Structure formats: structure tokens, C-alpha cells
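User: Can you model how flavin-adenine dinucleotide sits in this protein?
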Amino acid sequence: MNPFEPLTREDALSSWREFLPKVSSYAGSRNHVQSGHKNVSRLGPCIRFRTLLEDEIIQDTLNEHTFQVAEKWLQEICWRRYWRGWMEMHPEVWRRWRKQVRFLPQTLPSAILARAEAVSAGRSGVACMDAIARELIETGYLHNHARMWWASFWIHVEQLPWELGADFFFRHLLDADPASNTLSWRWVAGLQTPGKTYLVRLSNIEKYAPVYLRENETGSERLDDGMVSARVPQDIEFLERTPLVDYPTSFIQTTGRTGLWIHTDDLLPEIGPLAALAPATIAASLSERVYKTTYDLSPQRIASLRTVTHDALDRASAHYACPAVVVQAEDPVLGLGAWARDEGLAEVVAFAPLIGPVHDILARLKLHLAKLEIRLTLIRRPSDATAFSFATAGFFPFWQKMSRLLNPPLYSKSAP
Ligand SMILES: Cc1cc2nc3c(=O)[nH]c(=O)nc-3n(C[C@H](O)[C@H](O)[C@H](O)COP(=O)(O)OP(=O)(O)OC[C@H]3O[C@@H](n4cnc5c(N)ncnc54)[C@H](O)[C@@H]3O)c2cc1C
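Assistant: Here's the modeled complex, given as C-alpha cells:
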């Protein structure tokens, strides 16, 4: 297993078991960037694809550590759900970002595009930032601090459009998450919390990541404290909050053949509200053409999507005791439609996709299945429904509500 790639359920559980005792030292050590990154969990990909649930992590953590000792860790685990919930209520942010990723390369002056290309290839001339870019391309992983510094360097030092930097991360990070990535980049740019930008400082890198400076300090004077000033965002837009879609949180099986559709927003159907489903067949779509042409994902990213999808299908097939197939059609909507029709399904059941690539095909899929007279039923995990409903403002009001749920004795030890 690549240490930055705990993707399958088995690898996820073993990485998590190894990290659990380190939760007690996490708050004090997490900001340091060490080679090998053993002071942080590197669980990003399995949490993002849900081969390991946040609910499982929270439960194990509280079984092993007190809330007080584990609070920082629990907060970080909950950040992703905060961003996810916020994005569910601001889907326009994802749509606008994707639009800009398509539009900017057609409209920006070629000198800016060439600079963006050089910086993301690790040829900016600032050695520590170039080491970070190369680490991302080679391993698909970056420590949180490195993500913050590099995003700030891109936006505030290089004065490049945040949307293209976020796209570079999205194409390479093995834990690339539509909400965490887009919204963290907006936060560094000063768009997410108006008036607040994140500025990279050399003293901060010296303190937390001497590993990046040890071999080569070329160009680091560009990051000297006081040298970097915030690039004031020009494009703060008015964002209206849309209500959270109220998906059912449990499923009652009706008569007629049911198929289970599994996708990369939640690859653990055998735990939670779909565990007792009795599907006749299971499918997941893997559309490598879409990954390449629409998202231009790195080969490593595409390979990781393949791994997690096959792992989930194998587990699901064993759990539900029915056949599970990969739908490889060029168009995932037509592929899933053909699967459902050929299997004679009356209903397709799935976890509700979250704002992002899977959600982007949802409207067409609903329409297509409706034309085939096949019902599509989408379910949300109860714990997601609760957490997302708290994400209406900043993280701290969210955390106040979450911590009331997690802090014993109120925390329920029932299964997720
Ligand atoms: C510019 C930028 C882009 C980012 N893009 C992503 C992304 O695409 N996907 C992603 O999962 N995270 C993203 N993050 C958040 C964070 O950097 C990563 O979650 C974390 O570094 C993953 O490494 P880890 O698993 O070793 O983290 P750990 O410190 O071990 O944390 C454990 C888990 O908690 C969650 N978490 C921790 N910190 C954060 C955070 N700040 N925001 C959201 N969740 C967090 C993640 O699920 C993480 O795996 C981004 C942050 C920045 C500044």
C-alpha cells in the first residue's frame, strides 16, 4: 500500500487502527510537516470516498480517548462535513468554479497561462514551493499546511487565478473533495470569509516545515514576512443559501426488482441505512473518458477511483449476495440506464450524491430512468443530514452544535 493511499476498506481500517493511539498527540503535532507525514493520519482518500466513515472514526476515538483530549482531532474530522454541508446549500459555488476552469484557459493572456503551467509543474523558482508542487504530482498527497502555503503562494505571490490552482489540486490530490478543496481555496483567496485571507510567511515554513527548506532555499526571499500582501479579491459575489434537500434517511423496500447504484461519494452501503436492502443487482460506473476529458485527472487519480470502486463492488456483492458490475460506458447516464433496463429493475436505490461530479449527472439520470419507468430513490445518512443542517454559517457555530452531539454523555454509541 502506498502510505498516502489507504483506499480500500481493509487498508483504511488498518491505517486507522495504527493512527488511533496517536490521536492524543495530534493537537500538538499536526501543524508540523515531517517527512513521511506520520504525525497526521493520511486518511483523506478513504474518508473522502467513504471506505471509512467519519461516524466510525468518531465512535472509535471516543471509545479510546476523552473528548477533551481528542477535541482538535474531532474538529478536523468534522471540517469536511462542515464544508460538505455548506456546499450542499451553495451549489452555485461548484458550478461557477467548474465554469471558470473551462473558461479561463480560453480567455487569459498566454503569458499568465504559461506562468500557471510553470508554477504547477514545480518551476516557479521558489524552491520550497516547487518541492510542494512536485510532492503533490508524485504522491497525490500534501499536508494541510503545505496546501495552505502553496495556495497562498499561487494567489497572493504569483497573482494567479485561484480557480486554476484549485483545479491543479483537484486533478492530483487522491483525497480531492469538491467541497473541501474549492472552499479551502476560496478561504485562502479571501472569498469564503470576506475580509480574511491567508498569507504565506517564510518564518512559518521555517518553524513548521524545515524539511522543505533544508536542501535549497532558492527564491524563498519572495516569501519573507511582510513581503506578501493580500491580493484583494475582485469577484466577491452575492451567494444565496438554498435549502438543504430533504432526502429520506431510511429505506423501506417495496415489491419489484431493486438495483443498488454505488458511487464515489459513499462507498460503504453495507453499513448504515442501506445495509438491510435486498438488491437483485449492484452497479457502479467508472467513466474514464469523463475523468480525462471533463476533469483531466492525473493517471494516479484515475487509478485510485478504479481501486476504490472495485473494492466497494466486491464488498457489496459479498454483503448483499448478488452480482455487482462496473458500468464502463462513455456516458455514465446511458450506461446506468442500460444496466437498470436490462436487469428489469423497477427501482434504483443509492446514497444521494453530494454537490460535485456525481451530482452533476443526477438531473439527466433521473430523467433518463423516468423515461424507462424506473424509480430513483436517494437516501441520506441520518448523521450527514444532521451535520449538514448545522453548516448554515461559520465553522464555530457548526462545531458548537456538533460538539454537543459528540460530547459524552449525549453521544450515542449506536451504529452509524
Ligand atoms: C487549499 C486546500 C485544499 C484542500 N483540499 C482538500 C481536499 O481536496 N480534500 C480534503 O479532504 N481536504 C482538503 N483540504 C483539507 C486538509 O488539508 C486535508 O483534509 C488534510 O490535509 C488531509 O490530510 P490527512 O488525512 O493527513 O489530515 P489529518 O490532519 O490527519 O486529518 C484527518 C481528516 O480530517 C479531515 N480534515 C482535516 N483537516 C481538514 C480541513 N482543513 N478541511 C477539511 N477536512 C479536514 C480530512 O478528512 C482528513 O483526512 C484542503 C486544504 C487546503 C488548505
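A couple of observations from the model: The first helix runs from residue 9 to 19. The pocket of flavin-adenine dinucleotide is lined by residues 30, 40-44, 47-48, 76-77, 79-80, 83, 143-144, 147-148, 151, 169, 173, 175-177, 180-181, 184-185, 188 (CB under 6 Å).
User: Helpful, thanks.
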